[in-house]
From TrEMBL:
Residues 272-619 form the NADH:flavin oxidoreductase/NADH oxidase N-terminal domain. It comes from Knufia peltigerae. Keywords: Oxidoreductase. Its EC number is 1.3.1.42. One of its GO terms (molecular function) is NADP binding. The gene is OYE32_1. This is NADH-dependent flavin oxidoreductase. It holds the Pfam family adh_short.
């Protein structure tokens, strides 16, 4: 996913805006800037990073540079330009003020911006600098007279670009002066254009083909290049012709195109394969690998809770094959917060590097990396499920000898009757009785979530998710069935949600403001019709809606809508039913829209078919689909003004069965997406 900085992106009929929009649709990480915060930047806000930057002001540029940090820039495209017009910029009317203003933007601006951002450009493994100029900057142009200041400024910037190309060729930077020819823009009011003038979108497409797709830059008439030194272009590629992903301690090839991103996105491309911007992060598509327990870390010793090569291999493969965001599984914020002794943790600084290693590889393949922070509460200290299955039990307690913590299982309530299955220490029971957390214990747990978030940020994680679902600790506090405390953390809705809200606030405080925060909840525990539910009440969809309305103000960006898991008496089998969670996700999404609150919604739960995945996030395509997806199609079709059911889908077990699921979905939907470079020879045949 190339990172591109585009100037002059404010005019919705300009080349800068058209190029930024095109690159966003192709999944690039775009920074669109302009001196005016008008319609163009506002239209790009949902897809790109936007900023108001005056390219003639060193202070304004430095502020933008600080927001970039150390982000490598693959393409720096200077498009910003002004013209005074024939009446003001003629033989008898051009004056010093017009010359100075025109040169400041058209000539000094590209130089000043390049000077400031050059360190970021040099961090790229394949850097390019483009300056969109004009044919009138050439002394060989005989098309028109006039435009004294404009013509002189473009001639000057051509010379600057030539000097840049020579100065930077040994550093592997390709410098291009790009002359689009006559393009229909609104740089001048009431300007007329010849019949063969190019539209801004056409010019943007040529920019894409010549810069990003690395095609030869031939003279097309409407898009003409002045400079693209082949010597400079050759020097930007390593001698082996296989550029590396930068800033890694090992070699992995940089893909020619980002896996899972359409080559030619258009209005007919399924929304599933459209990029999505969340704060400063951009998902290359709407398919997320949900957190999946793997029970594959050391239970004791110096490597306790540390991720291993196994996690690089599995999670990295999902990223390699095109997923937009890959989550590391439920990660314990305290040692007793793990589900099993073999679950990962982030309660210690010693565990940070193992998370960074996995995150780095995920990101090297073009995906975002995420981590789910969790505390298992009364469902902790069990053994991995395949070992329990060998005892023909759904769950088996983990003893001290197995690395467990029988005496430190904790929850909102204590005692044998509050073990998850209600069997206490009976022989056929699968869970330990919990001890009741004190208020001091609760504060320590909140702090543990915060410190784990800090470590996740230090590890380079892109997205953090708080796990408040499936009967784990936070869910236990939310439910009146499992939380009958009489202090400030029990009783009323406000008290039962207090732990979650304090965890959200503590985690958000450790995160950069531009980093997304997700929350996974069980939207219902399916206990409404049970005896316990009728006696105590239960956590249901209405409770989730009430909570959801508070989330945007707390800094939560996406609600990951799941269900169940808090009690064995739940009235639905969430592992064999289809589409029920998606319907709830849609219900919450519609409610938030009605309240004019912004919260992205993620749909989960047995999403297996390409058509089903497409339709959940689609805006109304009419295609023949498989029998298995008909129900989802009927629920989620947005025809007649209806809304998509969710903004993203989170897929778990299907990825374990088919790591290439993203590529398979694209193939079945007829979307031509990029494959990993190493796998190009085995692409699915065109249907």
């Amino acid at each position: 996913m190339p990172t591109v900085v585009v100037t002059g992106a404010n005019s919705i009929v300009g080349i800068g805006y058209a190029f930024a929009r095109l690159l966003c649709n192709k999944g690039c990480n775009v920074y669109a800037i302009d001196r005016d915060n008008g319609n163009g930047l506002k239209a790009l806000e949902s897809k790109a990073h936007t900023a108001t930057v005056d390219v003639t002001s060193p202070e304004s540029i430095q502020a933008f540079k600080q927001s970039l940090g150390d982000t490598p820039i693959d393409i720096l495209l200077n498009v910003a330009g002004i013209a005074a017009g024939p009446q003001s910029d003629g033989l008898t009317t051009t004056n010093l003020d017009i010359l100075q203003r025109t040169f400041a933007v058209n000539t000094y601006g590209p130089l000043l911006l390049t000077q400031a951002l050059l360190p970021n450009v040099l961090r790229s493994s394949n850097p390019k600098i483009g300056i969109v100029s004009s044919r009138v900057g050439s002394v060989g142009d005989n098309s028109t007279g006039g435009s004294y200041a404009y013509r002189a400024s473009k001639a000057a910037v051509n010379s600057i670009g030539k000097s840049m190309a020579m100065d930077l060729k040994d550093k592997g930077v390709v410098v291009m002066l790009l002359h689009p020819g006559i393009v229909k823009t609104n740089i001048l009011p009431n300007e007329t254009f010849p019949a063969d003038a190019a539209e801004a979108d056409e010019a943007a497409k040529m920019l894409w083909e010549n810069i990003v797709s690395k095609k030869d830059m031939a003279d097309t008439g409407k898009f003409w290049h002045h400079l693209s030194t082949r010597q400079a272009m050759a020097s930007s590629t390593p001698k082996d012709g296989n550029p590396a992903v930068p800033n890694l301690p090992y070699f992995t090839p940089r893909h020619a195109a980002d896996p899972g991103v359409p080559f030619n996105a258009s209005s007919s491309t399924p929304t599933l394969f459209a990029p999505l911007k969340i704060r400063s992060k951009i998902l290359r598509n709407r398919i997320i690998v949900a957190p999946m327990c793997q029970y594959s870390t050391a239970a004791t010793g110096p490597d306790i809770g540390k991720l291993t090569d196994y996690h690089v291999a599995t999670l990295g493969h999902y990223a390699l094959k095109g997923a937009g965001l890959v989550f590391i599984e439920a990660t314990g914020v305290q040692p007793n917060g793990r589900i099993t002794p073999n679950c990962p943790g982030l309660w210690s600084d010693a565990q940070t590097e193992s998370v960074k290693r996995v995150s780095d590889f995920i990101k090297s393949q073009g995906a975002l990396s995420g981590i789910q922070l969790a505390h298992a509460g009364r469902k902790s200290s069990t053994i991995p499920p395949w070992i329990a299955a060998s005892f023909k039990k759904p769950s088996v307690r983990a003893s001290k000898q197995a690395g467990g913590w029988p005496e430190d299982v904790a929850g909102p309530m204590g005692g044998p009757e509050n073990s998850w299955d209600g069997k206490g220490l009976a022989e056929d029971g699968g869970f330990y009785p919990p001890r009741q957390l004190t208020v001091s214990d609760i504060q320590e747990t909140i702090s543990a979530f915060a410190q784990s978030a800090r470590r996740a940020v230090e590890a380079g994680i892109d997205v953090i998710e708080i796990h408040a679902a499936h009967g784990y600790l936070i869910h236990q506090f939310l439910s009146p069935i499992t939380n009958r405390r009489t202090d400030q953390y029990g009783g009323s809705f406000e008290n039962r949600t207090r732990l979650l809200i304090e965890v959200i606030e503590a985690v958000r405080a450790q995160m950069p403001t531009d980093m997304p925060l997700f929350l996974r909840v069980s939207s219902t525990e399916w206990m409404e019709e049970s005896d316990l539910g009728k006696k105590y009440g239960s956590w249901d969809v209405e409770s989730t809606m009430q909570l959801s309305r508070q989330l945007p103000a707390l800094g939560v960006d996406l609600l990951d809508v799941s269900s169940g898991g808090n009690h064995p008496q739940q009235r639905i089998n969430m592992f064999s039913s289809k589409d029920y969670q998606t319907k709830i996700a849609n219900q919450i999404r519609q409610m938030m829209k009605a309240h004019e609150l912004k919260l992205l919604i993620g749909a989960v739960g047995l999403i297996t078919e390409a058509e089903q995945a497409r339709d959940i996030v689609e805006d109304g395509l009419d295609r023949s689909i498989g029998e298995e997806a008909i129900a989802a199609k009927e629920m989620t079709d947005a025809k007649g003004g209806r809304e998509p059911m969710a903004d993203v889908i989170l897929v778990a077990r299907q990825f374990m069965r088919e790591p290439e699921w993203v590529l398979k979905v694209a193939w079945k939907l007829g979307v031509d997406v990029a494959w990993p470079s190493q796998f190009l020879r085995v692409r699915f045949p065109k249907i």
